[in-house]
Amino acid sequence: MSDPRKHHIVPQLYQKGFARQQGKGWYAVVLNRQTGEARPPSNVRDIFAERDYNTVLDADGSRDSVAERVLAEHVEDAAKHGLDALRAGAFPLSDIDRQQVAVFMAAQLSRGRALRSNFSEALSEVMSMALSMSAQYGSDEHFESILGHPLSADERERLLHNKDHMTIRPTNAALLEPMLASIAGIAEKLLIRTWTLVIFPEPCLFTGEHPVVHITPNPESMGYGVVTAERLYMPVSTTTALVLSHPWAGWPEAVVHGTEELARRLNWAVLTHPSNRELLLHPDVAHHPLPSPTELGKDTHWPWGSDPASAPPAHRIYGAATRFPATEAADAAPPDQAAAP
Known about the structure:
There is one protein chain. By secondary structure, this protein is an alpha+beta fold. The protein has two domains: 6-110 and 182-296, no CATH class; 115-177, no CATH class. It is built from ten helices and 14 strands. It has helices at 12-15, 66-87, 95-108, 113-137, 140-147, 153-160, 172-180, 183-191, 260-272, 293-296, and strands spanning 6-8, 20-22, 25-32, 42-43, 49-51, 56-57, 63-64, 194-199, 207-208, 213-215, 231-235, 240-245, 255-257, 278-281. The radius of gyration is 23 Å and the shape is elongated. Residues 314-333 have low confidence and may be disordered.
């Protein structure tokens, strides 16, 4: 069987949590955040998919889809049981399911369009600078050993100012390995956070092309890393949300009841994430709670408030088993704990 050419940036098995089943297909609505335009319900097999997104071309022009196969078999398929369990309210997860869901989230933090575009631009800039430095300081003997002849003055000038004469674009071969190599390390950081499963009484959540988002109350705190963000959030379905917080922050490792206030905060986090240019909505969910303009004022960041005791104690070793009691902060306290269904 030939390798698939259509590669999903957001896996179909995840999208199904926000889609309506019709016969053998699953259908969801894609909303362009900038224009507000919503496309008619589409099959998830065609949503967040790009041709040969993870394909590498070798020197002979042959396609190698090993990266897509690894993601499909060892990340997406492996996480299916854990995602299904979360959607059913089964919590806590087994150790293996927790690990696979952590790997799934880590992969989503590493494979999106915006991240790849940013990495490609950064790598292009580095390659351009390296070429310019080589032209500036490389000797005639150096270039003759590579090209078989020394550079002419015009050639050296063109390489020195290469941006004016060429466009450097890294191939997938240069991009995929460093981007996907970080998945295991990111998953380890996710595993040592406190996991809270929030269940809402009715469908109210949506997701996007970058389904795992960082939540940090202070936009100047630089808390947008896997370690530094106060919370990491992934909508699991229209009614279930997975929130990962610092172990010292006071959120429970449990199932909790979701309120409309919390739904507004979580939806706002997805909506305002810079990488979520397109959002994914269930076609049958008419109401998605969001902050009003009055609540937001002129600030584009939802005023969540800090976690209780959000700064780790000086003697705290991140990931250690010891727990510390949280200080009280009414505006930032986690939702009430509820008995697991």
